[in-house]
Design a protein that fits this description.
Blueprint (H helix, E strand, L loop, with lengths): L17 E8 L13 E7 L3 H15 L8 H5 L4 H8 L9 E7 H14 L5 H12 L1 H15 L9 H15 L7 H8 L2 H11 L12 H13 L5 E6 L6 H13 L4 E7 L5 H21 L5 H7 L12 H7 L12
Parallel strand pairs: 1-4, 4-5
Antiparallel strand pairs: 1-2, 2-3
Helix pairs in contact: 1-12, 4-5, 4-6, 5-6, 6-7, 7-8, 10-11
């Protein structure tokens, strides 16, 4: 099959809006610092159904696995490297018609904790960048885990235990002889106990509609913002997720409306019934693995280079070294949509 063309424009429907298919990879619920993955990826593709079906069939023809349903791990196997490179290549089928929003989970936790306790996120990046280098691996891991437990809705112990554990971790960071430049940030966090107590008390009344640690919902809003940026209206077609209840879909629509995003709604489908979602599933899984490898200093330069044009510059990413390779501009210059 030939490489990409302009047929993605045919994804504009008779209703006058652009229809974009989405899927995610790397969901571990609220366990963002101790789960199976350290990166969350939300991919979106703009292709006509027939074109996407032809690409899925081409992948099956090239890989020739007897599996009933193909996933990203089929393409990530070394023996299928040529198929993976074909899919991502500048002359490949989805180049210019796809985007992936990346979230570095550990940074996401710090970002959300700082926002909760200080009322804004401006100091999150500096704290995260200091992280392991200034405080040492053990203290930093303890802080990340405690921040995760503070924010998550359900905890095994009493409501005060996550708060106590978090502020013990903050005290340990403040006591570290590291002469860190983020001492003032830590001092302010240490003085924010009342905000943490209030947050945990609110959770006793029931789980919030949008959990603080859920990356999917803001990623969907960001995806709609990207595709509607030229002033057009976009409808998203998404793989079914338990998280995407009617109430949360209404929240997405209202959040998008308030942000001035041309959002024509969210339609849920089963991935096996929509080849566009299958292609988004491939890209999400591939991007998560390539980005995670790069984050951990084990990146494949060729694959990272192939992925870079697909990466959303508003991705929520804190690690400076890996972002200079994954992103197209320095992380300091981007303005993430949260």
């Amino acid at each position: 099959m030939a490489g990409n063309g302009e047929d993605g424009e045919q994804a504009v429907t008779g209703g006058g809006f652009l229809e974009v298919a989405c899927d995610e990879s790397g969901s571990d619920g609220e366990n963002l610092t101790g789960g199976n993955t350290d990166v969350f990826a939300h991919a979106s593709v703009r292709l006509p159904v027939e074109t996407a079906a032809a690409y899925v069939q081409e992948i099956r023809n090239r890989i020739r696995s007897p599996a009933e349903e193909y996933k990203a791990n089929h393409l990530l196997r070394e023996k299928h490297r040529a198929v993976l490179e074909w899919l991502l290549a500048p002359a490949g089928p989805i180049h210019g018609h796809a985007k992936v929003h990346l979230i570095e989970k550990a940074y996401f936790v710090v970002d959300r904790a700082v926002d909760l306790l200080l009322g804004d996120r401006t100091e999150a990046l500096g704290l995260y960048r200091a992280g392991r280098g200034d405080f040492g691996d053990a203290l930093w891991r303890e802080f990340l885990g405690a921040a995760n437990q503070l924010l998550r809705v359900r905890n095994g112990g009493g409501p005060e235990e996550p708060v106590e554990a978090f502020f013990r971790a903050v005290k340990a960071l403040r006591g570290a002889d590291c002469r860190t430049e983020v001492a003032e940030t830590l001092d302010r966090i240490a003085a924010s106990r009342s905000r943490a107590d209030s947050y945990r008390a609110r959770l006793l009344d029931g789980p919030p509609l949008v959990p603080v640690l859920n990356p999917l919902l803001p990623a969907i809003v960001r995806t709609a913002a990207h595709w509607s940026a030229p002033g057009r209206s976009v409808r998203l077609v998404h793989d079914r997720q338990n998280m995407l209840t009617p109430e949360r879909i209404a929240w997405i629509e209202e959040t998008a409306r308030r942000a001035g995003i041309g959002f024509a709604g969210l339609r849920l489908v089963h991935s096996r019934l929509d080849p566009r979602v299958q292609v988004a599933d491939f890209l999400a899984g591939i991007a998560r693995k390539i980005a995670s490898d790069e984050l951990n200093g084990q990146g494949d330069p060729a694959l990272t280079t192939l992925l870079r044009p697909y990466v959303d510059l508003a991705s929520v990413w804190g690690d400076e070294r890996s972002w200079t390779l994954l992103g197209q501009e320095p992380v300091q210059e981007r303005s993430p949509v949260r």
